[in-house]
Amino acid sequence: MRRLLIPLIAALALPTAVSAESSMMTQKAYGASILGANLCFLRQGKLTKQSFVLNVENLMLKKGYDIDLLYKDNVRKAGKLIANKLGNNCTNQRVLQEESFVIQITEILM
What we know:
This protein is mainly α. The chain has one domain (23-109). The protein contains four helices and no strands. The longest helix has 42 residues, at 2-43. The model is unreliable at 1-12 (pLDDT under 50).
């Protein structure tokens, strides 16, 4: 009985662990993208530092995501890279459709 129970428990736990890891990556990617876009607007003078912080934290909270992720070095680095890639076009979503760039961001966030 014990031999059957342990693999069953492992099988039930595995999808949860994979799902949790996937959810964490989704949260990090979302955090990096909103950091990047809002940093772009901050650099253009369209946001104050205070409104920048409030915007990104509120957007994370609205999704139910952990705002502490915004302060992780890899999320901040990915956010800066996104802001730099956006340049002066802060709403250019095509940036995140470039496969090589998405791979680069993913590697930073891992």
